[in-house]
Amino acid sequence: MAKRILIVDDEFEILFLLQRIFEDFAGWQTVTARSSAEGLVKTKIESLDAIVLDVSMPEMDGFQFVEQLQSEPATANIPVVLLTAKVTPSDRQRFAQMNIAGVIAKPFDPITVWQQVAEILQWSS
Q: What is the dihedral of CA 106, 33, 50, 121, to 10 degrees?
């Protein structure tokens, strides 16, 4: 059965690009959200194998999203891969403390991003 992945990003172009790549190259089913709030709602109503999440979003950033996700027993164990343009050493420490599955730097390579996600999540292709 195909993996089901939620993509959360406020930039439509990135959301659409990731959706196409994950579906066309990896064969995954995708669910999309344009905000953290919408993404959290979808975690409650969708059956998900993982989440790819932009860190820098208005209203609720990726860190706040992960904190809320992990505070709910039903969603606490969904692995999260973060997309971020800037990663500082203190961010990396915070990611480790929050049990983030992995981080992919923006800009990412559209040809290999699905393979990076699969490797982080240890999904064989």
A: -10
46: domain CATH number is: 3.40.50.2300
Q: Could you report the per-residue pLDDT of 65-123, keeping only the tens digit for each?
A: 999 999 999 999 999 999 988 777 887 788 888 889 999 998 999 999 999 999 999 99
User: Domain residues for 111?
Assistant: 4-121
8 Å CB contact between 52 and 102 = no
Cβ–Cβ under 8 Å, residues 88 and 94 = no
* Residue 103, Cβ density class (10 Å: 0-12 exposed, 13-18 middle, ≥19 buried): middle
- Both tokens assigned to 1: 């059965």
For residue 17, report the phi and psi dihedrals to the nearest 5 degrees.
Answer: -60, -50
